[in-house]
């Protein structure tokens, strides 16, 4: 297609990342999809190995794409990790795992590609947030915290690089049918029956998993990301997902905090 872009998509082996890579490739863009391991299978794009938690891996991946294609026009920071568990049960090392992937991983890749984008006076970075980055979700507190942090990082970065012709945006999906249900990482303490949170945590996370399995297809998020990469959708923040979840997030800034938290606790069967 005219205006074909070189797009690097992280976490492209499944879910939103794969759907995004497929849609971009189908529209004629030159896509490099990444996975922490070797190529997960045949695809109409190039595969690259990338561990976003490793600085050397990020540098090698970006250097490889530049050597092959000469430029990077857009990055989709999709690689992510969902952690479940009570905050009290979560160790600092477990918390760091969530932030290393969801926050510092996106930051590492942005830092690696920005010199080239500034030099070419154009570029797009799309960070994959979550509705859990707008509302603190019980027993996914570290996941919410990392996505809250990514929201702030994205908003600040967008302002810093605008003068260089670089666009930065965040996409916040609601429940989406992806393998995240089976790949959720747990704080070990909350799986211990001796934890005072074990029963409530298991029940609430089961509610999340039920909603996720019934979630919207990943292609809806992929369509939005593609529109941002192609410049057809503008703005620093984009929310996509079921209407009820989007209303919940919107009400967060309108409904008094005490009432909002009461409603959340009632929904999840928490509190007194």
From TrEMBL:
The keyword Membrane does not apply. Residues 5-174 form the Ketoreductase domain. It holds the Pfam family adh_short. InterPro entries: KR_dom (IPR057326), NAD(P)-bd_dom_sf (IPR036291), Sc_DH/Rdtase_CS (IPR020904), SDR_fam (IPR002347), SDR_oxidoreductase (IPR051911). Signal peptide: none annotated. Keywords: Oxidoreductase. Belongs to the short-chain dehydrogenases/reductases (SDR) family. This is Short-chain dehydrogenase/reductase. It comes from Phreatobacter cathodiphilus.
């Amino acid at each position: 297609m005219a205006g074909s872009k070189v797009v690097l998509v992280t976490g492209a082996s499944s879910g939103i990342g794969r759907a995004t890579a497929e849609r971009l490739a189908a529209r004629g863009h030159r896509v490099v999809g990444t996975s922490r391991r070797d190529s997960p299978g045949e695809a109409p794009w190039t595969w690259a190995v990338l561990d976003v938690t490793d600085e050397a891996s990020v540098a090698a991946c970006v250097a490889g794409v530049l050597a092959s294609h000469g430029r990077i026009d857009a990055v989709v920071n999709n690689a992510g990790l969902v952690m479940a568990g009570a905050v009290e049960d979560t160790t600092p090392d477990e918390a760091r795992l969530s932030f290393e992937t969801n926050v510092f991983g996106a930051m590492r890749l942005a830092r690696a590609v920005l010199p080239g984008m500034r030099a070419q006076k154009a570029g797009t970075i799309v960070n994959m947030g979550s509705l859990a980055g707008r509302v603190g979700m019980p027993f996914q507190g570290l996941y919410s915290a990392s996505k809250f942090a990514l929201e702030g990082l994205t908003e600040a970065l967008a302002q810093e690089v605008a003068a260089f012709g670089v666009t930065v945006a965040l996409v916040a999906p609601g429940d989406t049918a992806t393998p995240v249900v089976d790949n959720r990482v747990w704080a070990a303490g909350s799986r211990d029956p001796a934890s005072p949170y074990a029963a409530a945590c298991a029940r609430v996370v089961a509610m999340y998993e039920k909603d996720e399995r019934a979630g919207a297809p990943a292609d809806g998020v992929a369509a939005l990301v593609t529109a941002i990469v192609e410049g057809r959708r503008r703005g620093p923040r984009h929310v996509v997902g079921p209407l009820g979840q989007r209303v919940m997030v919107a009400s967060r800034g309108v409904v008094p905090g005490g009432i909002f938290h009461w409603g959340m606790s009632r929904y999840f069967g928490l509190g007194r």
